């Protein structure tokens, strides 16, 4: 009788555990499905004209793909904030554009991230260009509505900022810490130079989009 009770108890335990496992599996499947559906609905499909351009040098295609994937995984969790498009110029030089546009503040984060990528023990040469707007984060009346160049100098030690030079040679340090977002410099950290690549020339070249 005692043995029979033990067997019945084991069978009941197995049935309960199977029921719990089945319920958990169904809930997880439903959650995965909903998340996929939400991401698809939020994915921007309408391209927006803009002149944001980033050039990365002395990097391999494989490494840059890893870097862009890491950035997108970090910034596109809740909503799509960046959809970079990667175009190969040479074996070690690449152009990155944003056909769906990107907020100026995220653009700054992007340049910093590509220069200081996570899980890499090295930095990369990164320069970005865009035209600012008066409503952009960190933009003042002295830098609004101007062509600007964004970069991180080789002697940077803060690791949480980007530097900006306007086309009329006004320099800024844009810090990511509160209170350090828009520091005007006595002189630019680097002289403004226009990109050697025209965004329009990239239109018909082979590229890869990230999300």
TrEMBL record:
Protein name: Cell division protein ZipA
TM region positions: 6-24
Highest taxon listed in the record's lineage: Bacteria
Keywords carried by this UniProt record: Membrane, Transmembrane, Transmembrane helix
């Amino acid at each position: 009788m005692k043995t029979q009770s033990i067997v019945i108890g084991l069978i009941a335990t197995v049935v309960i555990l199977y029921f719990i496992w089945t319920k958990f599996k169904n809930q997880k499947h439903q959650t995965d499905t909903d998340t996929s559906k939400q991401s698809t609905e939020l994915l921007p499909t309408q391209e927006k004209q803009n002149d944001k351009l980033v050039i990365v040098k002395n990097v391999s295609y494989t490494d840059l793909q890893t870097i862009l994937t890491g950035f997108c995984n970090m910034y596109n969790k809740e909503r799509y904030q960046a959809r970079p498009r990667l175009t190969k110029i040479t074996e070690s030089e690449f152009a990155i554009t944003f056909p769906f546009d990107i907020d100026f503040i995220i653009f700054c984060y992007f340049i910093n991230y590509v220069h200081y990528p996570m899980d890499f023990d090295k930095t990369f040469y990164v320069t970005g260009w865009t035209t600012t707007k008066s409503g952009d984060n960190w933009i003042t009346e002295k830098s609004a509505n101007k062509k600007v160049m964004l970069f991180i100098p080789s002697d940077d030690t803060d690791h949480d900022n980007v530097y900006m030079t306007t086309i009329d040679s006004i320099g800024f340090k844009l810090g990511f810490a509160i209170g350090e977002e828009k520091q005007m410099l006595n002189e630019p950290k680097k002289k403004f130079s226009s990109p050697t690549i025209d965004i329009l020339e990239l239109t018909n070249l082979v590229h890869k989009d990230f999300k």
